Amino acid sequence: MTRQIDGTILTPQGWIDGRLTYDTRIAAVRGDPVPEPAPPYVLPGFVDLHVHGGGGADMMEGTEAIRTAARLHARHGTTAFCPTSVTAPTGDLDAFLDAVRDVMEDPPEDGARPLGAHLEGPFVNPGKLGAQPPFARPADAGQLKAWAARARIRIMTLAPEMDPDDALLDALQAAGIRVQLGHSLCDYARAKAALALGAGITHLYNAMSVMAHRDNGLCGAAFAHADFAEIIPDLIHVEAGAILAARRAIPHLYGVTDATGGAGMPDGTYRLGSYEVEKFEGAMRLPDGTLAGSALTMNTALRNLVSIGLPLDEASRRLSTYPADWLGLPDLGRLTPGAGADLLVLDADLSLTRVVVGGRDIPDLR
What pTM was estimated for this model as a whole? Predict the structure, then answer.
């Protein structure tokens, strides 16, 4: 059944005042261009490529945990996402990938759509784990191929110094899996070489060798050479000025939540892989105070980006279009005929009034 939404619609060509019609896909977008948007705003659904959990659930716990997180994040505007692992033993990652496969085959009708797994580790530097559990190990292209046979993997975060001959990077690219650099102590030259081969960046600034005027590392290479990079716009992991600096340097900087089970939940203790993490004052931390993922949701990310000076259309693109582009998915992250009917309606306060995933309305918005 064809339905419609009226409002100020963000199209790839800019804002129009008009009407969008859709069923499971967008049928038509018609209207007149406007120089400035006015509510209700109609935006593409958010695409979150780095999310560990939500609604009290950690995705390493299995299928029901992934479904719980998918429901929670859909109520906050995420319409498609990559369930993300932590560094863990092989058996735990096998089970995680099996769960991702099962949820992709039978996604919740009232949740965000899983696009495939993001493996954050285990081929990361043990000296730059951040809040990753202590199961890092050297790159193993054979193990990667075994994991790719279990489930669709979209992204792998690795430390390039753990893959000195680029065998893993080559295997990832041959399998159509996006490479992201993170949890790394590599130097500038090693990072530059990996970026030249098409790699992106995981949670820019966090858990990586620094940007500096001498002894530059991964962060500095990202500023000089990256085209796509994640950033966590919770204003805790990265302050406003650092986000704005990265925005000027990296053309397709895009936002992720890096959300854990504490997203959408009250203060308390939650799981992150084999760790317990504490939610307090909007942040997730290990007992020693180390940031451990976030409690961010994408609707808050949008408001944060607007609050630091980004226009609404740009903030939206950095949470929807750019991450879809990074995965090479032209039918996501944009409101254009033929694209999936994943869309949001927001009021003047940028609060969600409607979320549509594949043509279905999501109940109980937050």
Answer: 0.98
How would you write the pLDDT of the chain (366 residues) with one tens digit per residue?
A: 899 999 999 999 999 999 999 999 999 999 999 999 999 999 999 999 999 999 999 999 999 999 999 999 999 999 999 999 999 999 999 999 999 999 999 999 999 999 999 999 999 999 999 999 999 999 999 999 999 999 999 999 999 999 999 999 999 999 999 999 999 999 999 999 999 999 999 999 999 999 989 889 999 999 999 999 999 999 999 999 999 999 999 999 999 999 999 999 999 999 999 999 999 999 999 999 999 999 999 999 999 999 999 999 999 999 999 999 999 999 999 999 999 999 999 999 999 999 999 999 999 887
Is position 196 within any domain? yes
Q: Which residues 6+ apart lie within 8 Å of 127 measured at CB? A: 185
A 10 A CB-CB count for 162 gives 22
**Torsion (CA) 141, 151, 263, 180 in degrees, nearest 10:** 30
On whether 239 is known to bind a ligand per the annotation, the reply is: no
Q: Which of 48, 58, 140, 258 is catalytic?
A: 258
106 carries an active-site annotation: no
* CATH code, domain with 152: 3.20.20.140
Contact residues for 27 (Cβ-Cβ < 8 A; gap 6+): 2, 21, 337
Is 172 annotated as a binding-site member? no
**Structural domain that includes position 114:** 46-332
